[in-house]
Structure formats: C-alpha cells, structure tokens
Design goal:
Blueprint (H helix, E strand, L loop, with lengths): L2 H8 L15 H35 L3
Length: 63
C-alpha cells in the first residue's frame, strides 16, 4: 500500500449519511448543507457529461 492510500484511509469524512446530527450546531449544520449541495452539483455535472458521452457513442454506433 502506498503512502497516498494510507492518507486516503486515515482521512475522516466531513459528513456521513445517516449520522447523528443532534450534537451539531446550527452553523455546523449549515456548513454541511452547503458541502452536500456542492457535491450534488458535482455529481449532476458528472452524470450529465457521462450521458452526453453515451449519447455520442450511441449515435456513432447506431445500427
């Protein structure tokens, strides 16, 4: 295992789906909401790009 793999394993996630939120402050909750919103935008952009690539490939190999 390389040094980079170890860093990736040791890094704790800023937010885990389903975790207990009762101990977080309002500011912490708002920060996590912004983090998740930006992640949604990133995921949607990647899905859109992959959809466009798929459509291009489908049109190229159209039967």
């Amino acid at each position: 295992m390389s040094m980079f793999d170890e860093d990736r394993l040791q890094r704790k996630a800023l937010h885990e789906i389903g975790q207990d939120l009762s101990l977080l402050s309002v500011d912490e909750l708002k920060a996590r909401i912004e983090l998740l919103k930006s992640e949604i935008v990133r995921l949607e952009a990647e899905a859109s790009a992959k959809g466009a690539s798929r459509a291009a490939a489908d049109s190229l190999f159209k039967r």
